[in-house]
Amino acid sequence: MIPIIRLGDSMLTKHSVVVPDINGDIQALISDMFDAMDRGKGVGLAGVQVGHLLRLFITRVPGDSPRVFINPDILETSIEQEPFEEGCLSIPGLYTDVVRPSSVRVQAWNLKGRPFSLTVDGYLARVIQHEFDHLNGILFIDRIDPKKKLRLLAGYEAKVEA
Ligand code: ZN
Fold first, then answer.
1. How far is the CA of 141 from the centre of ligand 1 (A)?
2. Domain tally for the chain?
3. To bridge 77 with a disulfide, which of 17, 28, 64, 101 should be the other Cys (CB 3.0-4.6 Å)?
4. Catalytic site residue 131?
5. pTM across the whole model
6. 162 residues of the chain, pLDDT tens digit each
7. What's the CA-to-centroid distance between 34 and ligand 1, angstroms?
8. What is the CATH number of the domain that holds 138?
9. Three-state SS string across the chain, please?
């Protein structure tokens, strides 16, 4: 079982590096990540969250098939933005609204090493942007009002210590 690292681990603030080769090791990692994500009942998980600073993440949003994004790039985001409640397997139990673009166009490579691009909105667009941020060391709580962030974290730490 591959453990998910939690808030406070400095790794979560680091930039991930490009995956040089989509090989058996990467396929095994992705498979472990799906196990970890499902165990945590999450809808997305980035490599850094399981201790691998690699530019890859997975999603499994209700009603959608499981997806793998390797070396992703967000090519375009909509001008229109919307609030949406987010959580994170690395910050269990903390949920808050985050404002982000409503739709995105993303390009990535799949597990077979084939490039693809995708324009999505709704829940999947949200999860892709959240996971993409992880690759650059950004957490969803970094995208909210700093005062609100401090308040939420105080509550979170109190809960974790309890
Ligand atoms: Zn997250």
1. 10
2. 1
3. 101
4. yes
5. 0.96
6. 899 999 999 999 999 999 999 999 999 999 999 999 999 999 999 999 999 999 999 999 999 999 999 999 999 999 999 999 999 999 999 999 999 999 999 999 999 999 999 999 999 999 999 999 999 999 999 999 999 999 999 989 877 776
7. 14
8. 3.90.45.10
9. CCCCCCCCCHHHHCCCECCCCCCHHHHHHHHHHHHHHHHCCCCEEEHHHHCCCECEEEECCCCCCCEEEEEEEEEEECCCEEEEEECCCCCCCCCEEEEEECEEEEEEECCCCCEEEEEEEHHHHHHHHHHHHHHCCCCHHHHCCHHHHHHHHHHHHHHHHC
Distance 90 CA to ligand 1 centre (A): 6
Please identify every residue whose CB atom is under 5 Å from ligand 1, which is an ion. Answer: 88
Number of residues assigned to the chain = 162
What's the 135 CA to ligand 1 centre distance in angstroms? 10
